[in-house]
Every structure is written in C-alpha cells, then in structure tokens.
C-alpha cells in the first residue's frame, strides 16, 4: 500500500470515526431528552395521584352525603309541578303576595342530574321574604334559589318585591349512573 493510500485510508477512518461520534452524540442527546420528558410526565402523574389521595377523605365525605340525600328518580313533570306547589304553598303560608309565577324550561344538559326551574315574583315584608327564601334553599333536598332580584315596592316602602328563580335537581328515571 502506498503512502497516499495510507493517508487516504487514515483520513477516511478519522472521518468515519467523527461521523459515528456525531451520530452517537445526537442519539444520546435524543435519548436524554426523552428521559427528561418521561421523568417530567412521571412526576406529574405522581403529583396528581398524591393530590387525589389527599383529597380522598373529603371526596369520601361528599360521596357519603350524596348517597344519603340523593333523590329518587322522578319524571320531569312531577318534579316541576311539586316544586311549583311547594314554592306557592310556602309563599302563601309566609304571608307573601304572589304576583306571577312561570315554569322555566328544565335543564337536561347534564349527564345524571337534571334541573327543574320555576320563577316567582312575590311581594311582602323583608322578614317574611327572608324566611321564605330560607325555607326554599335546602341543599339536602337538592333545591336552591339560584337567582334573586329584590326591589322596594313603590306604593308601600315597608314591602319588598322579589323575583326568584328556584331550581330543583333530580334524577330522571332513564338517567344512567
């Protein structure tokens, strides 16, 4: 082998060595980046699991409450008419004057719980009005006053006019848990 061939072979060998090192370095860098990403993902999953474990007691309490108070499945019309009758009965027993009442469309967008809604416009004394609202707002019965607008009556400043939206959460008979 001549000296030129030896030099060419050495240059090709060194070039090949450098090329292999560059490719190896790139592969190692990609592998290291993948390890860092996997580690970050694992840490994130670990932190979420740790948080879920810490919240387990609170959620267990909420689930116990829900199993104790969850309403029995009922038809939409039955719930809405029962809600309307209850609100009307409570208003008259508190000495409030019902000016108008309106059935609002039932919200059936949720997967399990639906909401029957009624809107009442009443007038009465402040004390009676607050007692009435307190009687309607009962979480254990899955009922809430979700909207209130209070305005003093123009003809009698001892009375308040109120417009309330009352909602009753219920489980439809065909809902899947």
Count helical runs. 3
CATH architectural type of the largest domain: 2-Layer Sandwich
Largest sheet: 4 strands, antiparallel
Oligomer: single chain
Strand content: 25-35%
| Order of strands across the main sheet | 1-2-4-3
The rough form would be described as rod-shaped
**Total domain modules:** 2
At the first level of CATH, the class of the largest domain is: Alpha Beta
Q: Remind me, CATH topology of the largest domain?
A: Alpha-Beta Plaits
- Give the termini separation: 84 Å
Summarize the SSE layout with pairings.
Layout: H1 3-69, H2 76-93, E1 97-107, E2 113-125, H3 126-136, E3 143-152, E4 159-171
Antiparallel strand pairs: 1-2, 2-4, 3-4
Structure description:
With 177 residues, the chain is of the alpha+beta class. It folds into 2 domains: 1-69; 76-171, Ribosomal protein S6/Translation elongation factor EF1B (Alpha-Beta Plaits, 2-Layer Sandwich). The protein has helices at 3-69, 76-93, 126-136; strands at 97-107, 113-125, 143-152, 159-171. The protein has a 4-stranded antiparallel β-sheet. Strand 1 (97-107) and strand 2 (113-125) form a beta hairpin. The longest helix is centred in the N-terminal third of the chain and has 67 residues, at 3-69. The model has no long low-confidence stretch (mean pLDDT 91).
Give structural attributes.
2 domains; 3 helices; membrane; transmembrane helix; Transl_elong_EF1B/ribsomal_bS6; 177 residues; rod-shaped; transmembrane; Alpha-Beta Plaits; 4-stranded antiparallel beta sheet; alpha+beta
